[in-house]
Amino acid sequence: MTPYKVFIVGHEGTTGLRIHERLSDRKDIELLATADEDRKNVEAIKEVAKEADIVFLCLPDVASKEIMAAIGELPCKVIDTSTAFRTADDWAYGFPELGADYKTAIATEKHIANPGCHASGMIACIAPLVKAGLVPTDYPFTITSLTGYSGGGKKMIGQYESEPKDYFLYAPRQYGLSQQHKHLPEVQHVCGLSEAPIFMPIVDDYYSGMEVTVGIHSRLCNKPVSIDTVQQALEDFYKDSTIITVVPFAENSNTGMLNANQLSNTDSMKIYVTGNDERIMVHAIFDNLGKGASGAAVQCMNIALGLPEDTGLALG
Ligand SMILES: NC(=O)C1=CN([C@@H]2O[C@H](COP(=O)(O)OP(=O)(O)OC[C@H]3O[C@@H](n4cnc5c(N)ncnc54)[C@H](OP(=O)(O)O)[C@@H]3O)[C@@H](O)[C@H]2O)C=CC1
Ligand SMILES: CC(=O)N[C@@H](CCC(=O)OP(=O)(O)O)C(=O)O
C-alpha cells in the first residue's frame, strides 16, 4: 500500500515534535519536509504541501494564517493546531467525541481546527451536560484549569528549565486574569453557551498534564440534578469512546486527591465526577500535549484518512 504523505509545518516546536514522534514509526505514513533552511519560507512550504495528503500546522496563529493564505486552495487536508480557525464556520472542529456530525465533518472537510488544550477539558465536561438539557446555556460557570509548563510552548519551557530559575516559577501561577483567555470563544461556540465562563488557568512547575474542573450548583440547573444523574449522563455520552473514559463513581473514592499529571505522556482523557448532590464537580484529566494537542491532531488525521481513530495513539 502507498503510504499517506504527511507534512508537519513547525515540526521543531513542542506540538510538532510530538506529532512527529507519533508518526515517525508508522509504516502507513511517509513524512515530508522542506530543507531545514526553508522551514519558514512560505513558497517552499507551499511546494511541499502540493505533494502532501495531510498538512499539520503547528505554529503561532499569525504564521498559520499566513500559510493558509498560501496553501488553502491546494487539495491537501490541513489540521491546524493554533487558535486561528477554531470558530470559523468553514472549518471542522477536531473533537469527534462530540457526536456523529463532528466526526463526519472531520472525515470529509478539507480543513480541521484542532481544539485548544484548556478548551478540550472545558468542552469535554460541559457539552454533554448542556446537550442532555441538565445545565442551562446561560449557566454561570466558574472553571479552574491546571497545566504543566509545556502548554506555553518552547518559550515557556525555556523559562522553566533555565538555571538559575526565577523564584516565582517554583509555585503555581494564575493567569488569564482579565477573563479574555483565547480559548473562551471556542468553548462558548462549541457548547452553545450564551455567557462566557469565569476561567482560572494556573500553570505550575511540572512538564505536562492538565486537570480542568467545572463546578455545578445543582440548584442553578434547569431542575435540580443529582450527582448520579451527572455521572450517568457523562457515562452515556462517552460510552463508545476509547480515548475519553468516565471513571465509575465507585472507583473514585471522592476522598483522595486528583493528580494533574496522571495522564502525562498519554493521549487519553479521564472524566471524574466528585462532590455531592448540592455541589457537583466534573474534572477532565489529560495531557496538554496528548488529547490537548498532538494526540488529538493525530486522532483527527486518522479519522480524515478513514483509519481507526486511535491508530498509533498511547491510551492510558
Ligand atoms: N504546547 C501546547 O500544549 C499546545 C499548543 N497548541 C498550539 O499549537 C501551536 C504550536 O504551539 P507550540 O508547539 O506549543 O509552540 P512552539 O513555540 O513550541 O513551536 C512553534 C514552532 O513554530 C515555528 N514557527 C514560528 N513561526 C513560523 C513560521 N512563520 N513558519 C514556520 N515555522 C514557524 C517555531 O520556530 P522556532 O523554533 O524558530 O521558534 C517553533 O518551532 C500554537 O498555536 C499553540 O498555541 C495547542 C494546544 C496545546
Ligand atoms: C501554559 C499556557 O500558557 N498555555 C497556553 C495554552 C496553550 C494552547 O492550547 O494554545 P492554543 O490555543 O494555541 O491551542 C495558554 O493558556 O495560553
From TrEMBL:
Active-site residues from the entry: 117
Alphabetical keyword list: Amino-acid biosynthesis, Arginine biosynthesis, Cytoplasm, NADP, Oxidoreductase
Listed pathway(s): Amino-acid biosynthesis; L-arginine biosynthesis; N(2)-acetyl-L-ornithine from L-glutamate: step 3/4
SUPFAM superfamilies registered for this protein in UniProt: Glyceraldehyde-3-phosphate dehydrogenase-like, C-terminal domain, NAD(P)-binding Rossmann-fold domains
The keyword Amino-acid biosynthesis appears for this protein: yes
SMART domains per record: Semialdhyde_dh
Subcellular location: Cytoplasm
Catalytic activity reported: N-acetyl-L-glutamate 5-semialdehyde + phosphate + NADP(+) = N-acetyl-L-glutamyl 5-phosphate + NADPH + H(+)
Its EC number(s): 1.2.1.38
InterPro entries the UniProt entry points to: AGPR, AGPR_dimerisation_dom, AGPR_type-2, NAD(P)-bd_dom_sf, Semialdehyde_DH_NAD-bd
Enzyme's top EC category: oxidoreductase
Semialdehyde dehydrogenase NAD-binding domain location: 5-106
Classification via PANTHER family: N-ACETYL-GAMMA-GLUTAMYL-PHOSPHATE REDUCTASE, CHLOROPLASTIC-RELATED, N-ACETYL-GAMMA-GLUTAMYL-PHOSPHATE REDUCTASE, CHLOROPLASTIC-RELATED-RELATED
Role, per record: Catalyzes the NADPH-dependent reduction of N-acetyl-5-glutamyl phosphate to yield N-acetyl-L-glutamate 5-semialdehyde.
Name of the protein in question: N-acetyl-gamma-glutamyl-phosphate reductase
Organism whose genome encodes this protein: Veillonella orientalis
